[in-house]
Amino acid sequence: MDFSTEKFAIVGPIKWSFNKKGGGVLIRKNGDEDVETIMHLHWKGSAKTILRMCSHYYDSEGNIHALEDQKSKFEQVIRDMEDDGLRPIAFAYKPIKEREIREDGLILLALVGFKCKIGEDDKSAVKALRNAGVSIKLVSQDELQKAIKIAFELGICSRGSNDVVALEEGMQLLSMEGQQQLTLAIREADVGIVEATLNTEMAREGSDIIVSPGRGLRPFTPLLRHGRCAYHNIQRFIQLQLTACISGLLITVVVTICSGESPITAIQLLWVNYIICILGGRMMVMEPAAQALMAHQPQAKRTKSLMTNFMWRTFVTQVFYQASVSLIIQFMGQAVHALKQEEWNSMIFNTFTLCQVFNLFNAMELEKKEIFVVVIRDYRFLMALVVVMGMHVVFIELATTLVVGYA
Asked: How far is CA 47 from the centre of its chain?
């Protein structure tokens, strides 16, 4: 570094178009401001691209030779590097007298093969994602053999698999070059995930999630687990809300048709919905993103409903159960003359509310003992439950007072 800063100055960097991999730099000696001073144009990039730009090469002793006779050998060296899973990069230069950027007639300096190190954490992450039913596709700017080698090492595919056979037989290959295409691809994705330091500012702005640098594929496993946990919680919350709305509507319609009066008012239905939102939201964060959710692949696609067949069966069962209990109390109460109609309506409303509370516990999908342990340990849920039940008592008394005063 001291050599370059003391004796040479960088005239300016050179960038290629998006369909090429690499770049260059133009340098000159310090103190030589004359236009006729010989400058050096250095290029680096993909070995195949650089090799096509070269007409000569340096040997190990520093002698210059014509490249034409040895070009096939250099191409074979590049292919051997790719077959070994290396990324071949070439360095070349050309002395020039004017600031004329030329991409031909270069002198080849060196061929270097870089090894892409794949850690055990990345392999474990790929295995966990595949076990979770995730289809992994490797999109790479490298040559085909290099990409296949990386896929083997990561465990994305195995030798003799249909994907590898299709690639080796020369089926349709797609390419994506440059940062602009990368940014467009991230924006078109349902969820764009980029690494903090390895992508452009435009790509980071168009992404949805930015992961810490240097962690490889490890962040994808917890992202998937928490994503499926959120998906599962949304399904449960929809089921709870739908059960409360339909059962309340069914009870109101049947009783209104039979007796002419509704046992549950619109304000009471809103109150029950408020309870579900408070306790249901707290319940969703009580259960951690369990590892078992990794095996539960979302069944809903873009155009399909979030409600599964099992959810529909549970929904119908709960609606029938809640409506039956409330209707039995309603019509059995008419035979008991010791209680007033307002008292029976209050009993129906309390029963309907408690059904929703117990349905919340039923939606936790834990064993009975586990539900008790989880609820006892979560003091915030207990506080929310006590506050909501206290507010429910106040709501009943206040509603009764308002109704009596209005009458």
From this structure: 35
Counting every residue written for the chain, the total comes to 407
User: Please, are residues 97 and 26 in contact by the beta-carbon 8 Å criterion?
Assistant: no
Structural domain span for residue 210? 120-220
Answer yes or no: do 299 and 279 share one domain. yes
Q: Single out the residue in 115, 135, 150 at which a domain terminates.
A: 115
Measure the CA–CA gap between 242 and 363, rounded to whole angstroms: 13
Element (H, E) at 124: helix 120-131
Mode of pairing for the β-strands spanning 54-58 and 8-15: unpaired
177: closest CA among 137, 135, 142? 142
Whether 57 and 70 have beta carbons less than 8 Å apart is answered as yes
Contacts (Cβ under 8 Å, ≥6 apart) of 272: 244, 248, 352, 353, 356
Tell me the CA distances in angstroms from 339 to 175, 252, 401, one per residue in order: 78, 20, 17
Are 258 and 395 within one domain? yes
If asked whether residues 301 and 257 sit together in one domain, one would say yes
Of 68, 93, 115, the residue that ends a domain is 115
CATH number at residue 93: 3.40.1110.10
CA-CA distance, 78 to 71, in Å (whole number)?
A: 11
Retrieve residue 342's tokens.
């307002």
Say which amino acid occupies 165: V
pLDDT tens-digit series, residues 61-84: 888 888 888 888 999 998 888 877
Prediction pTM value = 0.62
Looking at the fold, whether 106 and 139 belong to one and the same domain comes out as: no
**Where residue 298 falls among pLDDT bands split at 50, 70, 90?**
low
Q: Which residues, listed in sequence order, are joined to residue 229 by a DSSP beta bridge?
A: none
Domain count, the chain: 3
Q: Is 193 in the same domain as 290?
A: no
Can you tell me which residue has the tokens 């994907």?
163
What is the separation of C-alpha 376 from the centre of its chain, rounded to a whole number of angstroms? 33
